[in-house]
Amino acid sequence: MIIKNNTLLCLLLTLAVTVSNTGVSAHTLTADFGEKASFDVLHYDASLTPDLIEKAIDGRVTVTAKKLSGGKGPLVLSAKYKTAIKVTSDDVKLSYQILDDDLVINFHSPLTVDQRFSVDIEYHAAPKRGMRFYPDHMFTVYHTGNWLVSHADIADKASFDLTLVHDKKLKTIGNGHLVSQKPAAAGKVYSHWQQQTPIPLYTFGFALGEFLQQSTAYNNQAVNFFYRPVQLSGLNREKIKDVFADVPDMVRFFEEKSAIALPNKQYSYVVVPGTVAQEAAGFSMVGEKFAHTVLEQPGENWFIAHELAHEWWGNSITCAGFSHFWLNEGLVQFMVAAYQQHLFGEQAYHREIKLALARVKKVVAKGRNAPLAFDTEIAEQDINHSIVYNKGALVFYLLREKLGEQHFWQALKAYSLAFAGKSVVTDDLKQVFEQVSGSNLSPFFQRWVYGEEIPVIKF
Ligand SMILES: [Zn+2]
Predict the structure, then answer these.
(1) How far is 270 from 435, CA to CA, in rounded Å?
(2) Pairing with 435, which of 13, 170, 206, 314 sits 20 to 30 Å away (CA)?
(3) How far is the CA of 287 from the centre of ligand 1 (A)?
(4) What is the pTM assigned to this prediction?
(5) Distance from Cα 75 to the centre of ligand 1, integer Å
(6) Among 154, 179, 209, where does a domain finish?
(7) For 38-93, what is each residue's pLDDT tens digit?
(8) How many domains does the chain have?
(9) How is the chain split among helix, strand and coil, in percent rounded to 5?
(10) Are residues 93 and 115 in the same domain?
(11) Structural domain boundaries, residue 141
(12) Is 276 in the same domain as 189?
């Protein structure tokens, strides 16, 4: 997600109002159910039938998890916007309660530590958020908990099998790769997508619609573009080619800076109406309005780079909690500025940094300053998005200035390699940058990351 041109995008648009309740309710449950249990959610296997007219989905999901050491509490999953819930395990009905937006599942007998188990949940969902329906297409946006019965912990990654049942004239885009397409009754097909590497829950997603498709390749990796016909989108084959012309170069740039190949061996952009910019693992949704802007001003391709950069920083290397959210968004904003520098030169880099500084000043002038990171947990609704995105980018700029080209990029590579596929806290980044540069960065982090000072930057 991104904040630019007064538009709040990506994860952020719906953040404050969508999922924060899950954590809050879990605390309430602790009081009701005794010592809080902890679970490691391993895998989701979902079969969903979207209904574009009813703006709803019917389906079932099998959640496979492992009990960790901890209390005897129930398994708590998101029930937001879900009805007609039926919960079983090995075909035996389990009792459950719905408390606020939580589905609280009780087990017949206590689970032992390390015990692996699966729970099947059938449900109907008519989400007011998290899914956008149109007559000819639909797609998911932040947050997965609105449409999938799922856990809330951002640090607990899981793999995902998704089978969509849909009209055969529609194309699907999902996480990972398309395993198979098989005929179903009444002119429908089953499209089975599989994401084998565990990913954070908010990057689960799919799109479905009467899309046209074209593709390009970079190092045997496919980059696909899905878009609506010209009479609906104003975009045709040539325009799509122009809008996304730099994507292979972007992949090359982020691969070089991270020393990690594009995680999924393929990437797709789904171009949808309006001003959407939403990453999922392996693909993203980007707005038609932005695509048209790029056709007139090629320098405005930031959203294409931003969502792609999340494949490395955000989707693969994920902040372990919202106290460290700048490791997702601040770093990606900085990487977009660095890419602009690579593509258009020094002035473009300075323009991005100046823009970030102006946004920070604006939010501070409104009395809404905050540290970039916290030693204690913060709730999702307490994130200061403008600080996280913009001051986050500025702090990476300052770090680059301080350490110099060689150490900075070497450290970023070391950090990316060390934490690929993992969840990170601010100290993980600090330690790697200290090791590589041989500098004590405690004063720097105290001042710029944990403090509220606004840097003075002059070009
Ligand atoms: Zn983002």
Answers:
(1) 40
(2) 314
(3) 14
(4) 0.92
(5) 30
(6) 209
(7) 899 999 999 999 999 999 999 999 999 999 876 677 899 999 999 999 999 999 99
(8) 3
(9) 35, 30, 30
(10) yes
(11) 39-209
(12) no
